[in-house]
Amino acid sequence: MSLINVEKLSVGYDGNAVEKDISFRVEGGDYLCIVGENGSGKSTLMKTLLGLIDPLAGKISFGDGLKKNEIGYLPQQTQVQKDFPASVYEVVLSGCQAHFNWRPFYNAQDKKTADMFIEQLGITDLKKRCYRELSGGQQQRVLLARALCATRKLILLDEPVAGLDPKVTEEMYELIKELNDRGTAVIMITHDIAAAIRYADHILHIGDHIFFGSREEYINSDAGSFFLKKQGGDEK
After folding, report:
1. Which has more confidence, 137 or 233?
2. Residue that finishes a domain, picked among 127, 150, 173
3. Which of 29, 85, 146, 217 makes the best surface tag, with the fewest CB within 10 Å?
4. 147 contacts 70 by C-beta, under 8 angstroms
5. Span 150-161, pLDDT tens digits
6. Do the beta carbons of residue 146 and residue 92 sit within 8 Å?
7. pLDDT (mean) for 175-179
8. Which residues contact 153 (CB under 8 A, 6 or more apart)?
9. 103, 117, 186, 196, 203 from 122: Cα distances, Å
10. 37 and 132: one domain?
11. How far apart, in whole angstroms, are the C-alpha atoms of residue 216 and residue 8?
12. Which domain holds residue 135?
């Protein structure tokens, strides 16, 4: 069964739909990029998947034992979040709170999990540093480690390379792909169509027309061809 199956979903606020009739699915180990015009509802869709916003219509089903509190999430950062006065270790460890249930404190397994992802993402030397003193790329690695503490199955990323320089952007994309290659399913919002078709195996395009399919199908679709040419991307 799919990790997530979305059927004829409408998303929006206060009864006003931003986007309607969205259908797609995510299987274990998939890499799905969500693309589309500004204001098309990409972030609203992601918040609806997380249960932060109620759907206006349609259905979201979770399978393969996945629960809403077992989805890792890396949102776009606000300035307040960038200035958060906590250590790297504290930020990463806080991702384990999703599994607390009635338990009030971190246990030994939580700390072991945090240490594992700190090492895996190459930020061991930053462990005791204050989060707000880090560069943008370092902060994104910390937040990715935090998201992974909540899950082994699926992470949702909302523009994870926004504001990063080209070198750090490429490093972040490669890191996300490595995590996907190890079996973690990825849903990522991006404005970078060329990166989407380079890394993802499936594309969801929302806007005036909705498309969901494989990378190859998207490249040959009207929406894919138009946006690749618009961004100067390679169509093959």
Report:
1. 137
2. 150
3. 85
4. no
5. 887 899 999 999
6. yes
7. 94
8. 3, 28, 64, 66, 70, 71, 184, 185
9. 29, 8, 20, 24, 29
10. no
11. 23
12. 79-150
Q: 115: burial class by Cβ within 10 Å (0-12, 13-18, 19+)?
A: middle
**What is each CA distance from 74 to 19, 21, 50, 108, in whole angstroms?**
22, 25, 11, 24
pTM: 0.88
The two tokens of residue 91 are: 């930020």
SS3 115: helix
- Do 56 and 86 sit in the same domain of this protein? no
- Please give the structure tokens belonging to residue 117: 């992802």
**What is d(CA 126, CA 224) in angstroms, rounded to the nearest whole number?**
40
The CA distance from 229 to 120, in Å, is 37
Is the pLDDT at 102 greater than 70, yes or no? no
Are 166 and 93 contained in the same domain?
A: no
**Chosen domain end from 150, 177, 207:** 150
Contacts of 42 (CB under 8 A, 6+ apart): 34, 35, 36, 158, 189, 206
The two structure tokens encoding residue 16: 């006003």
pLDDT confidence bin for 235, thresholds 50/70/90: very low
Q: How many domains does the chain have?
A: 2
The Cα–Cα gap between 146 and 101 comes to 18
